[in-house]
Structures are given as structure tokens and as C-alpha cells.
């Protein structure tokens, strides 16, 4: 499912003194099957942009095309319910959405709403709980008895159970421990490969952007600042610094090394492996 | 969540904004009492002009005040219609069984309508120009004499402050949870009554759980910092009675005199 934004503006609480424009004339394309990262300073409009992807917000002006569905300021809510199944959104701190008596029922809630039978939904729920590494014995417990990290997994499984074609993730690993973070990111990656999902990830973790994404969108104060491959975006450390964006660790290391010693990186390394390879090469040349 | 104007604060620096919250609170209540003295066209006209003058002083667009009336319009119309049908006297225009439309009925209906609108305008003026916490702290200051009668004034005012403080937070939370559940296929406000009631469960449970967690966190944080209410506690918000507050009181006094002079005895 490819996604196009055309001159999208969004204004919160229009025509009140609290009016605030959050998106300014955004035009962009998210290719089908891509792993797109959206980065930007806090308050730059990332979450606002995400809510346009399944019609929770409709543009104040402009147009969004998702596969064949067109969303304009006047689109009716009824027309959007099929879109909500195809585009699954995992919100910032999604554990706030849990409410059912048991973990299993909560995960099955989404698919049931979208027309799966009780039995199908429960089966899907078991499958997804397994996928996000929730131990079997938790499934019949109340979601409110779990730890924060486990609740996060339940919430994510609840979205995955809807079997969306586009998976939208708003800082899915914020507040998790490093191991849990890596584990969850690997789950998304595996899903993408297995089910050809389009993934859209909002994150402040540049290492995740470098490792997983193949397309990066940079927002600043509600405007589109840049878009391109991670290599393109991270090629200019000074540009990133002036826009208050961090570098991936490996790139930061390489950039510092370049300044202090004679190393020359023709292509900035994004991950530790790339960095190591380039260093080995250059050290080899020096003899 | 965008439509609620009644009870929202619009920051500003107008004459009304800068009044002491205590004087605003007293004068608003006072005005509501005074309205009931009006009983003829001249007196209502006087109050109307005065209210518009206050609105003008606040530098807030009249549209916000009109929006404040809208949620209550059915209640107002219902009351007005009752007045029109059940007041007797004067020329009879229409009659059916116990119902009749008379001259007095129409006039009274008009007055009741004006009374409602004036009260709503004045209370909207109070909430639009005074931050909720200011209102709470003014309430505390005004209730202080009740301490003599063992009324737990500090506790009441702390409760009001906390409640007011968390209204916007809870509204944000509601919106977030609604969005999350919509994304999982819940349609709020659609379908049969049963369906709509069922849709409320996935909203209310997370909301309550969140509110309880927040209350617990807040209590812990307050205790951790050694909060003890009441006696000897100094205040961050200190009220200063200024000349403009005295001026406002004088203005309201003159208004009352003029009104007593204009009304039919
Ligand atoms: N419900 C709302 N009502 C009014 N303004 C809002 C609302 N939600 C967001 N905004 C404003 O819109 C702007 C963009 O907010 P948004 O939540 O999209 O930022 P973000 O990029 O997701 O930030 P973060 O990284 O902190 O999550 C901010 O200035 C914010 O104050
Ligand atoms: Mg956000």
C-alpha cells in the first residue's frame, strides 16, 4: 500500500483562540513495502502526521491517498472503517488502551471488531501473543497485573492481530530496557520480511533508523525538511546538528574520528558493522 | 473536545483579566442576585448594556459568549415556553384547555430568556478571564471565615484545585484512548444504543485505571515532599486588592442603585 500526501495542512482546534497549525503543506510519498522512519524534534508534528494515516484526523486542506482510498477534508467517517483495518497504529505508550478481563481477550478485541469470529480472533490472539514473546501463562491473567514491558507487548500484539498491511509505530520502544527494545524491533523486522508489511516508524533512536529503515522523512516545526535514504540523511553531520537531530552512534564515532585523525570516510558508516569494515579497510591500506 | 467554551480560560491582559479573582467571583455572584431585581424593559436593557460593556472590557470576541449559550439553549427554550403558556394576565392571544398565550406570558417569557442569557454571559466572562486555579484560590480565600465553624476549608480548596487541574489532562487522555480504540475498530457514537453503550467500556476502563494511577502517583509525590495542608502554609498565589477592584465594586454598586430606581415597585 503506497501512501501519498499532497499539500496537506492540519490545524488543531480551528477557529478558536487555541488554534494551532501542526502541519504545513506536507507533500510526500511512502512507497509500498518500505520501512520508513519519521524523525524530528519533539513537537514537530510526527504524531499528528501518523493520525492522518488511518483517518483519525482529516487534513484541514490537501489530500491523502492510501492505495486507492482518497482522504480529503470532507471524507465521511463511514468510508474510513476499512482503512482502519488495513493501517494498524501502535500509539505512543499503547498500554493505556488495555481494558479487557484477560490478556487474550484484549488482543482479540481488534480482529473481533473487524468481523472475525470469536474462534478466529482467539486463535489469532494466541498466535500474536507467541510472536511478541508473551509467556503462555500470562494469557489468562488481567492485563493490569503485568509489568510495563509486558503490557506494551500485549498492546502491540493487539494491533498485529488485526493483520494490517501497513504497520504504524509511534515510538514503540520508548521507556523499555535495551534488551526489550532490541527484541521488539527485531520482531517488527521479522514480520516485515515474512508478510511484506509497509512499516512506518516514529523514533528518536537514530540507531534504529540506521539499522532498519530504508527511507527517512525529517519533519521540523510541522514542515517537511528532507526525505531520502538513511545514507543521504546522515551524510552531513553538521546539517543534522543545526536541526537538533542526533546521529547514529557509529556515524557519530566516525565523524569524530574524521575530525581528530587522518581517517577519511567517503560514505558515512551507519551501523557498527559498516564502521568496522571501513576501519579495517583503511587500516589495511596504511599497513 | 473542541466545543466546550463554558469553563475555559483564554489568557489575556485586559482590565477584566487583571482584576483580583476574589472581586471577580464576588461580583459575578452579586450580579446574578441583582438580575432578579430587574422586572421591566428598562431595567433589563440597563443590565444588557452593562453586560456588553463588561464583555467589551475583556477584549474577548462576543462569539465566545454566544457559543457559551448554545449548549443550554434547549433548557432555556423549555423554560421560556413554560413561562409563556402558564402565565396569565393581560390580553389573551390564544387559548387551548389549560394553555393560554397572554400578553403577560409573552413578556415574562422574554424576561426569563434575557435572565438566562445574562447569567450565562457573566459566568462565562468569569471563567474565560480567570484561570481555574485562580478561581479555586479565590474560593479558598473567601471561605476562610468558615474555618471557625470547623469547615475543612483547606482540604476542600485542595480538592477543587486538583480536580480543576486535571480536567484538561483527563480530556487529553480521553481523546488519546478514543483514538487508540478507534484504531482497533471501535466506532464511537454510531450504531444502535446497545452498540454505543458497549463502545463506552473500552474508553471508561482505561480512563479510570489511568485516573487512579495518577491519583496514587500524586499522593506519593506530595507525601515524598512533605506536604502538610492547612495551618502555617504560605501561598504561591497571593491576592492583591487593587484600585481597579475597588472601582469595579463601586461600578456594580452604582448599577444596583440605578436598577432599583428603574424597576417597577
Ligand atoms: N490535541 C491537540 N490539540 C492541540 N494541539 C495539539 C494537539 N496535539 C498536538 N498538538 C500540537 O501540535 C504540534 C505537533 O504535535 P505532535 O504531537 O504531532 O508532535 P510530535 O512530533 O509527535 O512530538 P513528540 O516527539 O514529543 O511526540 C505540537 O506543537 C502540539 O502542541
Ligand atoms: Mg509524538
From TrEMBL, chain A:
Alphabetical list of InterPro entries matching this protein: AAA+_ATPase, ABC_transporter-like_ATP-bd, ABC_transporter-like_CS, ABC_transpr_CbiO/EcfA_su, ECF_ABC_transporter_ATP-bd, EcfA2, P-loop_NTPase
Membrane topology: Peripheral membrane protein
Keyword Nucleotide-binding found: yes
Any one of the GO CC terms: ATP-binding cassette (ABC) transporter complex
Alphabetically ordered keywords of this record: ATP-binding, Cell membrane, Membrane, Nucleotide-binding, Translocase, Transport
Pfam annotation, one family: ABC_tran
PANTHER family: ENERGY-COUPLING FACTOR TRANSPORTER ATP-BINDING PROTEIN ECFA2 (PTHR43553:SF27), HEAVY METAL TRANSPORTER (PTHR43553)
Record's protein name: Energy-coupling factor transporter ATP-binding protein EcfA2
Organism of provenance: Liquorilactobacillus satsumensis DSM 16230 = JCM 12392
Lineage: Bacteria, Bacillati, Bacillota, Bacilli, Lactobacillales
TrEMBL record, chain B:
Described function: Transmembrane (T) component of an energy-coupling factor (ECF) ABC-transporter complex. Unlike classic ABC transporters this ECF transporter provides the energy necessary to transport a number of different substrates.
Main localisation: membrane
This protein's GO CC annotations: plasma membrane
Source organism (scientific name): Liquorilactobacillus satsumensis DSM 16230 = JCM 12392
Descriptive protein name: Energy-coupling factor transporter transmembrane protein EcfT
Transmembrane segments: 21-38, 44-65, 72-94, 106-128, 245-262
GO molecular function, one term: transmembrane transporter activity
Subcellular location: Cell membrane
Amino acid at each position: 500500500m503506497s501512501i501519498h500526501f499532497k499539500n496537506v495542512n492540519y490545524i488543531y482546534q480551528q477557529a478558536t483562540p487555541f488554534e494551532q497549525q501542526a502541519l504545513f503543506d506536507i507533500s510526500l510519498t511512502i512507497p509500498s513495502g518500505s520501512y520508513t522512519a519519521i524523525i524530528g524534534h519533539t513537537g514537530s508534528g510526527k504524531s499528528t502526521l501518523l493520525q492522518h494515516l488511518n483517518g483519525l484526523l482529516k487534513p484541514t486542506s490537501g489530500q491523502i491517498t492510501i492505495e486507492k482510498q482518497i482522504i480529503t477534508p470532507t471524507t465521511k467517517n463511514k468510508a474510513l472503517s476499512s482503512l482502519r483495518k488495513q493501517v494498524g497504529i501502535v500509539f505512543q505508550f499503547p498500554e493505556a488502551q488495555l481494558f479487557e478481563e484477560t490478556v487474550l481477550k484484549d488482543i482479540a478485541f481488534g480482529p473481533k471488531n473487524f468481523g472475525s469470529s470469536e474462534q478466529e480472533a482467539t486463535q489469532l490472539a494466541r498466535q500474536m501473543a507467541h510472536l511478541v514473546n508473551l509467556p503462555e501463562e500470562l494469557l489468562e491473567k488481567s492485563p493490569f497485573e503485568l509489568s510495563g514491558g509486558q503490557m506494551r507487548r500485549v498492546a502491540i500484539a493487539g494491533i498485529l492481530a488485526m493483520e494490517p498491511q501497513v504497520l504504524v509505530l509511534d515510538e514503540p520502544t520508548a521507556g523499555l530496557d535495551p534488551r526489550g527494545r532490541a527484541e521488539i524491533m527485531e520482531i517488527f523486522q521479522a514480520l516485515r520480511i515474512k508478510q511484506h508489511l509497509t512499516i512506518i516508524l516514529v523514533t528518536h533512536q537514530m540507531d534504529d533508523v540506521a539499522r532498519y529503515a530504508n527511507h527517512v522523512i525529517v519533519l521540523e516545526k510541522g514542515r517537511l525538511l528532507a526525505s531520502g535514504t538513511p545514507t543521504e540523511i546522515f551524510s552531513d553531520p553538521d546539517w543534522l546538528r543545526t536541526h537538533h537531530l542526533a546521529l547514529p552512534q557509529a556515524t557519530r564515532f566516525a565523524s569524530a574520528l574524521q575530525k581528530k585523525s587522518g581517517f577519511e570516510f567517503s560514505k558515512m558508516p551507519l551501523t557498527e558493522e559498516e564502521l568496522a569494515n571501513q576501519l579495517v579497510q583503511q587500516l589495511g591500506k596504511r599497513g | 473536545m473542541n466545543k466546550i467554551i463554558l469553563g475555559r480560560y483564554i489568557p489575556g491582559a485586559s482590565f477584566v483579566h487583571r482584576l483580583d479573582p476574589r472581586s471577580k467571583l464576588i461580583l459575578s455572584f452579586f450580579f446574578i442576585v441583582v438580575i432578579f431585581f430587574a422586572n421591566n424593559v428598562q431595567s433589563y436593557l440597563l443590565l444588557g448594556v452593562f453586560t456588553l460593556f463588561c464583555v467589551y472590557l475583556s477584549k474577548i470576541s462576543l462569539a465566545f459568549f454566544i457559543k457559551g449559550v448554545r449548549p443550554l439553549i434547549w433548557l432555556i427554550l423549555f423554560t421560556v415556553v413554560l413561562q409563556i403558556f402558564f402565565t396569565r394576565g393581560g390580553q389573551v392571544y390564544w387559548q387551548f384547555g389549560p394553555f393560554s398565550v397572554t400578553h403577560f406570558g409573552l413578556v415574562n417569557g422574554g424576561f426569563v430568556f434575557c435572565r438566562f442569557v445574562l447569567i450565562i454571559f457573566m459566568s462565562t466572562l468569569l471563567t474565560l478571564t480567570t484561570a481555574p486555579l485562580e478561581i479555586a484560590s479565590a474560593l479558598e480565600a473567601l471561605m476562610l471565615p468558615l474555618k471557625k465553624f470547623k469547615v475543612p476549608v483547606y482540604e476542600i480548596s485542595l480538592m477543587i484545585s486538583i480536580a480543576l487541574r486535571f480536567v484538561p489532562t483527563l480530556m487529553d487522555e480521553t481523546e488519546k484512548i478514543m483514538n487508540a480504540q478507534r484504531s482497533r475498530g471501535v466506532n464511537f457514537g454510531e450504531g444502535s444504543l446497545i452498540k454505543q453503550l458497549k463502545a463506552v467500556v473500552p474508553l471508561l476502563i482505561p480512563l479510570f485505571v489511568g485516573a487512579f494511577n495518577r491519583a496514587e502517583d500524586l499522593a506519593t509525590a506530595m507525601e515524598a515532599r512533605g506536604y502538610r495542608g492547612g495551618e502555617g502554609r504560605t501561598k504561591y498565589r497571593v491576592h492583591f486588592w487593587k484600585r481597579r477592584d475597588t472601582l469595579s465594586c463601586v461600578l456594580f454598586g452604582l448599577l444596583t442603585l440605578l436598577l432599583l430606581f428603574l424597576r417597577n415597585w
